[in-house]
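quick one
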Amino acid sequence: MKASEKNNKKQLRTAQGLQGLFEAELKDIYWAEKAILKSTPKMVKNATSEELIAALQNHIKQTEGQIVRLEKVFEAIGIPAKAEKCEAMDGLIKEAEEMMEEMDPGMVRDAAIIASAQKIEHYEIASYGTLSSFAHTLDKMDVYDLLEETLDEEKETDSLLTEIAESSINYEAMEGDE
Ligand SMILES: [Fe+2]
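structure w/ fe (ii) ion:
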């Protein structure tokens, strides 16, 4: 292990037991949600399609609610709400931001924004799926319900983005019709 890695040791890698792993994953997604809340307005600014803009704006509100829900989970398990940097989400967001800077406005960029947003959604779906499964195993049913609620929202957002892409944006991007 390199020294730089040692200094950057995440709690995720030193977690004790399933409870410890659950807590570490929770801190990871808490960081990720906050990062998403900060970056989604940039997607709104760069999007052209009104339908996409509306979906992203709705997603910002939803993310605010999901952060509050995570804080309830921290409270329920009796630990302070703490974010721990998620390198994967940081990378996904950086890629999205670089792409938006480099591309011209229009439907191709909108299609790329949807692609980025869905990569982010899928990370969240994987995280909340794991967390809710851990909560179930640990017999924390109140926490399980909270996590399932968010998991359903993430899946809905993902489906909505697919619908927007496939019903109009992808075709318009192909035709070069802005
Ligand atoms: Fe989320």
